[in-house]
Design goal:
The complex is a heterodimer of chains A (275) and B (314). Chain A has twelve helices and no strands. Chain A has 275 residues and is mainly alpha-helical. In chain A, helix 4 packs across helix 6. Chain A starts with a helix and ends in a 7-residue tail after the last helix. The mean pLDDT of chain A is 88. In chain B, a hairpin with a 7-residue loop joins strand 1 and strand 2. Chain B is mainly α and 314 residues long. In chain B, helix 4 runs parallel beside helix 8 and helix 6 packs parallel to helix 12. Chain B has a two-stranded antiparallel ribbon. The chains are: A mainly alpha (275), B mainly alpha (314). Chains A and B meet through helix 1, helix 3, helix 4, helix 5 and helix 6 of A and helix 1, helix 2, helix 5, helix 6 and helix 7 of B.
Chain lengths: 275, 314
């Protein structure tokens, strides 16, 4: 009886905290479904839910452009970083060569150096090349920091791969590239997928780099477009800002809904960039 | 390319060294590692070295930077407008890190003896705040903290009308209000880490503690806390670093205001480096921020190693 009571209390506590974790997100979604001139307060539920705000956010805030830019940036960064990380993780996890240890430590240093301490020179480098407000400015630095987490992640996987598999492939005459592509990568699909969803999340949600690299504001990512839009609209119309916020959060939250296992494995391993 | 005998030699050498990566010595490894190294060097390492150099200069972004020695650092130490940013980030560490870790531990203590099924469903919800863009989080909470928002609504509901205010616009309350958003972002992560960890502690240990007459409190300190050491260290590392470097949440919620009530180091770095064009000063903030993060990481890692040693000795 007390066990049952304890268990009931446990679930109650967990449910309460889960509610707390979800509430702010639910509240912004509810706000987005309100009619424009409907009086809104903290806990109000839309009397006649409408999708109008999403349409208005899409056109007035140019979120179509922002979402497209973010999609191009995020997919390029994820694809390039994963490929580079698989290559370097393979080398550092399965081969011995001069400088391997040094290369590893250099790349690991990228896990500790905060992004914030890179943005001032990055801006001036791209400005000197006349490349601010451009895709390279949004993409290249993201790859530069993503390969650190990626290499660390893939190296750990390749190190744990059974050595006999690699040796057998070599005995069979497979070259190093064929061993990687034909044998190791198929086994690494879950690890690669986890890495990809984490990098997608970080890249999509990034704000500081996009802000710094957009002095003219002509190539806004979705989060950046959201802040500009919120800045101009917040006092006048909260419902349309809420709709825009929902649009910006949606791709990652949808990915999370579909690929929970990969996201959670990443979180539990401590692979959180903290941004 | 390399004969079998050398492979055997290499593998025995590996085995002898224990931690060396398996496989034969292969120069081709350099070619595989080179692209990652190149990208990080050009877009990570080089900018960082450049930041260190700029921190010793005066520069407004045009023309050449003028070397002025450690003057930017001296300014940070003597100017409250600058060093207070680091004090504020310590306050944020309390909200972003210590409170979530505390909540997580409390819950882990409550649940230490109860096997939980169906934790997965809760886990998905508790991790949700980690996936939402900080920009969106900031906007959602700005709404909650606004005049007609949920917080003021709640206060009116319980008759505390006198306390209602625009929380993020209040000089006293803006920083704690932002801090509580960080608490919200991180508490689920800590809870899931610790609750999962506590389920792995063998029940015998708790039984033994009870036989020895341990109450719930001493049981927590004798069994639960040591059993969760690794999880606590992971949680501390993630959340403390998040608190120290946080930019987007604070910037979108308050722009560092009102006044400079929420001007944390990353905000100051942006204001100095990009708005005020005091690039050297901004760079010095960046270098100190990096140094602080490095020290914190080392200290927490050391704590983990020392814990492991004492456990092995005991």
């Amino acid at each position: 009886m007390t066990v049952r009571l304890e268990r009931g209390a446990t679930y109650l506590i967990l449910a309460a905290f889960s509610l707390l974790a979800v509430y702010p997100i639910v509240s912004i979604v509810l706000l987005a479904f309100h009619r424009r001139n409907e009086p809104v307060t903290g806990f109000s539920i839309p009397s006649q839910p409408t999708l109008d705000n999403f349409g208005r956010a899409w056109t007035e805030g140019r979120f179509g452009d922002g979402l497209l830019t973010s999609a191009i940036v995020a997919s390029t960064v994820v694809l390039a970083s994963v490929v580079l990380s698989v290559l370097s993780g393979y080398a550092l996890g399965t081969m011995r060569f001069p400088g391997a240890t040094l290369i590893f430590y250099v790349l690991v240093s990228g896990l500790i150096i905060p992004y914030e301490s890179l943005v001032i020179p990055l801006y001036h480098i791209f400005r000197a090349a006349r490349l601010t407000d451009s895709y390279p400015a949004l993409i290249l630095p993201q790859i530069g920091v993503s390969v650190c987490l990626g290499t660390f992640w893939m190296r750990a996987f390749f190190r744990s791969a059974p050595r006999s598999v690699i040796e057998a492939a070599r005995v069979d005459g497979a070259g190093h590239l064929r061993t990687l592509v034909g044998i190791l990568v198929p086994q690494a699909v879950p690890a690669i997928l986890t890495l990809a969803v984490l990098l997608f999340m970080y890249t999509w949600n990034d704000f500081l780099l996009a802000l710094v690299m957009n002095p003219r504001g002509t190539l806004l990512t979705a989060p950046l477009a959201l802040t500009f839009f919120a800045g101009s609209q917040r006092t006048t119309d909260q419902t349309v800002v809420a709709a825009a916020a929902v649009l910006v959060a949606l791709p990652v939250v949808l990915a999370y809904a579909v690929l929970q296992r990969q996201f959670i494995r990443g979180f539990l391993s401590g692979a959180v960039k903290g941004e | 390319m390399i004969g079998p005998s050398s492979r055997i030699l290499a593998s025995t050498a590996d085995a002898a060294r224990g931690s060396a990566p398996p496989g034969e010595p292969r120069l081709v490894g350099l070619a595989y590692a080179a692209p990652s190294l190149l990208f990080f060097t050009v877009f990570g390492l080089y900018p960082f070295v450049n930041t260190v150099w700029l921190s010793f200069t005066r520069w407004n972004g045009v023309g050449a930077a003028v070397f002025i020695g450690p003057r930017n650092y001296a300014d940070i130490v003597s100017d409250p407008g600058l060093y207070l940013a680091f004090v504020r980030s310590l306050i944020l560490v309390g909200f972003y890190s210590l409170i979530p870790v505390g909540i997580g531990l409390l819950l882990a203590a409550l649940l230490s003896r109860i096997p939980i099924r169906g934790i997965r469903a809760f886990r998905v919800l508790l991790f949700l705040p980690q996936t939402v863009a900080m920009v969106v989080v900031a906007i959602a909470w700005s709404w909650i903290y606004s005049r007609n928002g949920a917080l003021n609504e709640l206060l009116r509901l319980v008759g505390l009308d006198g306390l209602t205010r625009a929380w993020l616009g209040d000089f006293t309350w803006a920083l704690p209000a932002v801090g509580l958003v960080g608490t919200w972002v991180n508490f689920g992560l800590c809870m899931v880490l610790f609750v999962a960890g506590v389920q792995k502690i063998p029940l015998d240990l708790y039984d033994a503690a009870r036989v020895d007459g341990a109450g719930p409190v001493s049981e927590f300190f004798a069994v639960t806390l040591p059993g969760l050491r690794n999880e606590i260290l992971v949680a501390l590392t993630i959340t403390v670093i998040f608190a120290l470097r946080n930019f987007d949440l604070v910037w979108v919620a308050t722009r560092g205001g009102p006044g400079d009530a929420t001007a944390v180091p990353a905000v100051l770095l942006y204001q100095l480096g990009f708005e005020a064009r005091r690039i050297g000063a901004g760079a010095a903030i960046a270098v100190i921020l990096t140094a602080v993060i490095l020290v914190v990481t080392i200290v927490i890692t050391r704590l983990g190693e020392r814990g492991q040693e004492s456990e092995a000795a005991g």
